[in-house]
Gnk2-homologous domain-containing protein (Dioscorea zingiberensis), 289 residues
Amino acid sequence: MAFHHYHLLLLLLAILISLPSPSFSDDEAGFVYAGCSQLKYTPGSPYQFNVDSTLSSMANAAILSSYSNFTSTAASPSSPAYGLFQCRGDLSLPDCQSCVRSALSQLSALCPSAAGASLQLQGCFIRYGNESFLGQPDTTLVFKKCGPTTANNIGYDPNMLSMREAALSQLQGGSPVSTYRAGAAGNFQAMSQCVGDLSTKECSDCVGVAMGQLRSSCAFAVSGDVYLGKCYARYWSYGDYGHKSSGGGGGGGDDASKNWAIVIGITAGVILLIVFLSFIRKSASGGKK
Ligand SMILES: *[C@@H]1O[C@H](CO)[C@@H](O)[C@H](O)[C@H]1NC(C)=O
Ligand SMILES: *[C@@H]1O[C@H](CO)[C@@H](O)[C@H](O)[C@H]1NC(C)=O
């Protein structure tokens, strides 16, 4: 009898362990875009040394804060390297660091020896270069993606448009305290993220430009992403409007399977506990006999 319980316990443990980890997921590591300068630095130059030092500072600092900037002049003050990273505001610091490290390794593969480069993953943004971009607003369009139009192809749907507008409008106004904001209305969710070197007003202005582009470029789309130089805004939908939403920011079709995994995990945990308790009680009463 005891052996049987032990067996079941191992089986349940195996199920629990094999469940997908709810922390740092493919979602945060998802690739959005990368840009590399055409110009390359000279291998072994002081500038390369400064870049390497900036990038390794980034890898280490992301556990301490979700935004940081760096200026490295260690090798040569005449060829400084500037860098920054920004994690999405809803990530924990360990997830932020995982994301930044993943971004750094992808960047070195995608932009070898580039004098300047930037890379955006779902969960974080990194950038470095030889000119200081720190503290400078930048609303240049870098990347844009619109989802398909409404699932039933009715095109103009006032209900959909008003839900999206209600979700988007929560990204601005009020009392912004964070570089990250999220909004939700009906079947729509929205989020925005600024790079931490912008002032509150600059951030709000930048998000406003991104929202304008979402409204004009992704007019009837079920999802949209607009990435500008120093901020981005996105929205996505599910249910009636979601074909297959683009996910990210905690939304999207992946959530359903994640939720299932959690339900299965909790059920397995409860069964495990019951089996364990009955095992303890049996062996305790067995000991008394
Ligand atoms: C950065 O690099 C580019 C290309 O080599 C160069 O034209 C520019 O002057 C550099 N800027 C600084 C501040 O060194
Ligand atoms: C850059 O980082 C320093 C701290 O290391 C901070 O005091 C400064 O405000 C940051 N600059 C910008 C533009 O974010």
Remarks:
- The radius of gyration is 24 Å.
- Residues 69, 134-135, 197 surround 2-acetamido-2-deoxy-beta-D-glucopyranose (ligand 2) (CB under 6 Å).
- The first strand starts at residue 31 and ends at 36.
- The chain is about 40% helix and 20% strand.
